[in-house]
Amino acid sequence: MTTAKDMGWDIISSDQDRHRFEATARTSVFYFADDVVIVVSPEADGSRVDMRSVSRVGRSDQGVNAARIRAFQQEFGA
Length: 78
Description:
- The structure is a single chain.
- This protein is an alpha+beta fold.
- Helices cover 24% and strands 44% of the residues.
- The chain contains two helices and four strands, in the order αββββα.
- The longest helix has 14 residues, at 64-77.
- It starts with a helix and ends with a helix.
- The model has no long low-confidence stretch (mean pLDDT 92).
């Protein structure tokens, strides 16, 4: 969750037992709220991080959600 907080996301809920949290991220231009969910699952050789980011409004996000996921992956792995 530290990475998400550092990226300016608002943590909405977290479940440490399930290694899961939900957050709201806002777009830089119009400050639209987007929903983000991250789940960390233990694996034999480490962990798997599953993430989704979805816009609340509009038909197209112009690649914002995919870019957000890539940015999180880069920051989280650094």
